[in-house]
Design a protein that fits this description.
With 478 residues, the chain is mostly helical. The chain has 19 helices and 8 strands. The protein is globular, with a radius of gyration of 29 Å.
Length: 478
């Protein structure tokens, strides 16, 4: 009887135990699936370099507040943590996709293309889902209400973006699962959709849309810097770079004897490219090396093939200045000796271990223009990749080391490029000032007051003609 009771109890509870086991297994599988999706989304967010724009200096990741410089004014990056009040916690996956691909917020307002939605439009559905799951479940919510973006008229009218988007909408979403793409397809997807390389390296037209069909990745000014031509052109681009050179640059920001990453590219290397897999870096490099070449008639030889180390340029034991009151102003040579030679050497050869790069065979010093050399002197270089910190202090107005005037920076720029690079660019103090302040204004921004004035005059003329026509018609009817 006792054995019978035990058997009955087993029969009674066995189905419940099996059901509990199945339920627990299903929950474990779902948790495992979500963890895998979050991991994938985190990697995609890294490939898209989301943290660079949505994190202010010293701030929490993705909480926004960074003011992104643009020709129209400062654009404040939004909080994209899952906080329901100040972040994106209330976004549905469809609303999240619309923000990424179309530049439309949950409230229907249009984003400015400082958010590279014209590139993100190509992100595949599977990756949109992974990104959504990551930002909703893998990122800590943080309540941080950032200042609103306030641009000058008429750029503060967000509805203007409707017309702009019709003209310059990005490509459609990629099909299938990008993890299954071939090497070149994967490289294209990573470079164009997630990495949004074209946003920085492709020239723009009068309306500030990318000239992708005619000058894709052909180089363009960018916030005082110059995002160089990265097509396979031998003289104008990076045609003399191997796939391994490109991978090394993306992974570390440095290829001795070629180039070093600074500014926004330094940030992209630090926060994004250096964290990608070797397989993906090789895919990007392979794709870049086979895109159409863009030639620049000013480029006579590769920009990283100018100059050689020179003999010591100054006898420091024998000052060349005759009187104490001649100490200011100094020429470019003396400015170099006082501020640069300790690291780069009197001969410009840099350090033997390449920690301090040579100024000859240097893409910045050998470039056709002086933009990046000016900005490197003013802002310095500061990047960390794989635990390796590279730091060159800036010498601009906020420097804690040695502040150089715009005139001094101009003299130093001309001396360095003239001695070690592509030649004296005859940079002036005004050129340095313009670069520090974000570079020359695009024609659309510069000419906007005249365009508005012309529009007002045209509207007034049209209204006057309409009134004249109406009065004449009324008189005829009488």
């Amino acid at each position: 009887m006792r054995e019978g009771n035990k058997a009955g109890i087993r029969r009674l509870f066995l189905p419940a135990a099996i059901a509990s086991g199945v339920l627990f297994g299903a929950q474990s599988a779902r948790a495992e699936d979500q963890a895998t999706t979050i991991s994938r989304g985190a990697y995609l967010a890294t490939a898209g370099d989301c943290v660079a724009c949505h994190t202010k200096p010293g701030g929490a990741p993705f909480a926004g507040g960074l003011v992104i410089a643009s020709p129209m004014g400062g654009i404040v990056a939004s909080n994209i943590t899952p906080d329901p009040d100040t972040g994106i916690g209330k976004y549905t996956e469809e609303e999240f996709a619309n923000a990424l691909r179309k530049g439309i917020r949950r409230d229907g307002a249009h984003l400015y293309p400082a958010m590279p939605y014209t590139a993100y439009s190509e992100i595949a559905d599977t990756d949109i889902h992974a990104l959504y799951v990551y930002f909703m479940h893998g990122v800590a919510p943080l309540q941080q209400d950032n200042p609103k973006t306030e641009l000058k008229f008429p750029f503060n009218i967000r509805a203007m973006m409707i017309s702009w988007n019709l003209l310059f909408a990005g490509p459609p979403a990629a099909k299938g699962d990008p993890q299954t793409y071939s090497k070149i397809e994967r490289g294209h997807y990573l470079a164009d959709a997630l990495g949004h390389c074209g946003t920085c390296h492709t020239p723009r037209n009068f309306l500030m849309g990318e000239r992708s069909s005619s000058a894709y990745l052909g180089g363009t000014p960018l916030a005082g810097w110059y995002a160089p031509n990265i097509t396979p052109s031998m003289n104008s681009g990076i045609g003399d770079w191997s796939e391994d050179d490109l991978v090394q640059y993306l992974r570390t920001g440095s290829v001795p004897g070629r180039a070093q990453a600074a500014g926004m590219m330094g940030e992209a290397v630090e926060h994004s490219f250096s964290k990608l897999t070797d397989e993906d870096l090789h895919a990007i490099a392979a794709y870049i090396r086979q895109i159409p070449k863009i030639e620049d008639s000013q480029a006579k030889q590769p920009r990283d093939r100018f100059g050689v180390a020179v003999q010591p340029i100054v006898d420091l034991q024998k000052p060349k200045l005759d009187r104490e009151d001649d100490l200011f102003p100094m020429d470019g040579e003396r400015i170099y000796v006082n501020n640069c030679a300790a690291c780069h050497g009197l001969d410009g050869a840099g350090a033997a271990d390449h920690f301090t790069p040579s100024l000859s065979s240097n893409a910045v010093v050998g470039a056709p223009g002086a933009d990046n050399l000016i900005m490197a002197i003013v802002n310095g270089v500061d990047r960390t990749t794989n635990g390796h910190h590279v730091l060159m202090p800036g010498f601009g107005p906020t420097s804690d080391v040695q502040r150089l005037s715009d005139t001094d920076v101009a003299k130093l720029t001309n001396y360095v490029s003239g001695t070690f690079g592509s030649g004296d660019h005859h940079v002036t103090a005004q050129d340095v000032k313009v670069a520090r302040e974000g570079g020359p204004l695009p024609a659309l921004v510069k000419d906007m007051p005249a365009l508005i004035g012309a529009g007002v005059i045209a509207a007034f003329a049209a209204m006057s003609c309409l009134i004249w026509w109406f009065r004449r018609r009324t008189q005829k009817q009488k």
